[in-house]
């Protein structure tokens, strides 16, 4: 019975989450092999060079972006299907599939990057923390005080819990390796070309809209998992987390990021998001957790990581329950 459960989709996902939490992305491996996300990026770069040329009309740019996004999704899903088919002929192929799936999850890598910001505060002060946070956010770190750096790190933990952990896990449950690879390809495209700039507004339109759609359910599931984590995290307030989510999530400029961010903010009694500077421009956004929430500090980064770890544990437990119920 246990072996049958492990070979189910939920069982393979549970193993993949455990592998990712324990091992993450070993740097030594990816120094020798190209990471799959790098391959997605290369295909996106090739497509942009071909279909997003300077001087192209808006209509041509949009058509080119739609074509590239469709090509990318088909290629990723086909690669996932071929991998799954090949593994079905291998002894313990389900275990190898779990290892492959773990590559597309980001629990340990996200945790380590956010933890590095807290550690930098302790060892190198604000300048070191600014350098560490610049590795994970797009905003200008020199414009951030200690509260701004702390807020950026906590927001990264919340938002990327959704699109780096929960969303790939969700799409694996829905469609196996094809769904997982297609989601990661789409999310990579959104991060590269889904920007509201003159260069990408039309070309990245399809990638940005589809990424919003693909994250619709995972973002809300992320909030539920953070609520569950708040039940166990020392000093967290689950009722405040629920209130903040239901009140603030829809006020965020992103249709999805507000759900995990407001859940995290409410649980920790903080205010997140709000007005911030990207590329020298002020971006106006609502406060998650309410303007009355406390400003984040370095110690709150570690509190957020406790909540993050517990939420990841809740996801692993959910996958395990689904495996046993299969």
- What sequence of helices (H) and strands (E) makes up the elements? HHHHHHHHHHHHEEEEH
- Largest β-sheet summary: 2 strands, antiparallel
Rg, Å, rounded: 20 Å
Please give the number of β-strands.
Answer: 4
Major sheet: arrangement of strands:
1-4
Shape: globular
Number of helices: 13
Weakly predicted, low-confidence segments: none
Average of per-residue pLDDT values:
93
Explained architecture:
The protein contains 13 helices and 4 strands. Helix content is 71%, strand content 3%. The relative contact order is 0.14. It is mainly α and 326 residues long. The radius of gyration is 20 Å and the shape is globular. The strands form 2 sheets. A two-stranded antiparallel ribbon has the order 1-4. Strands 2-3 form a two-stranded antiparallel ribbon. It has helices at residues 2-7, 9-22, 27-32, 36-51, 58-87, 93-102, 107-133, 146-193, 205-214, 216-230, 238-248, 258-268, 298-325; strands at 272-273, 276-278, 281-283, 287-288. It has one domain. α7 crosses α8 (146-193) and α10 runs parallel beside α12 (258-268).
């Amino acid at each position: 019975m246990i072996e049958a459960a492990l070979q189910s989709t939920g069982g393979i996902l549970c193993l993949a989450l455990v592998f990712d939490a324990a091992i993450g992305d070993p740097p030594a491996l990816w120094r020798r092999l190209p990471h799959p996300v790098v391959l997605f990026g290369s295909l996106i770069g090739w497509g942009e060079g071909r279909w997003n040329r300077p001087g192209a009309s808006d209509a041509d740019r949009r058509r080119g972006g739609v074509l590239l996004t469709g090509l990318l999704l088909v290629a990723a899903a086909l690669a996932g299907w071929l991998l799954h088919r090949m593994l079905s002929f291998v002894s313990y192929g389900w275990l190898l599939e779990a290892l492959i799936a773990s590559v597309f999850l980001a629990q340990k890598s996200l945790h380590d990057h956010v933890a590095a910001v807290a550690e930098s505060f302790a060892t190198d002060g604000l300048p070191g923390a600014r350098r560490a946070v610049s590795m994970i956010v797009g905003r200008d770190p020199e414009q951030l005080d200690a509260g701004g750096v702390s807020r950026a790190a906590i927001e990264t933990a919340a938002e990327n819990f959704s699109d780096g952990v929960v969303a790939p896990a969700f799409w694996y449950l829905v469609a196996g390796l094809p769904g997982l690879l297609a989601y990661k390809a789409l999310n990579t495209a959104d991060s590269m070309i889904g920007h509201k700039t003159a260069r990408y507004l039309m070309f990245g339109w399809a990638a940005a809209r589809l990424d919003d759609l693909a994250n619709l359910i995972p973002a809300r599931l992320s909030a539920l998992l953070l609520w569950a984590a708040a039940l166990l995290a020392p000093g967290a307030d689950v009722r405040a987390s629920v209130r903040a989510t239901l009140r603030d999530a829809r006020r965020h400029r992103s249709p999805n990021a507000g759900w995990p961010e407001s859940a995290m903010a409410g649980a920790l009694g903080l205010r997140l998001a709000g007005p911030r500077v990207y590329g020298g421009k002020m971006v106006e956004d609502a406060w998650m957790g309410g303007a009355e929430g406390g400003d984040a500090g370095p110690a709150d980064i570690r509190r957020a990581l406790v909540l993050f770890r517990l939420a990841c544990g809740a996801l692993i437990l959910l996958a395990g329950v689904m495996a046993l119920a299969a």
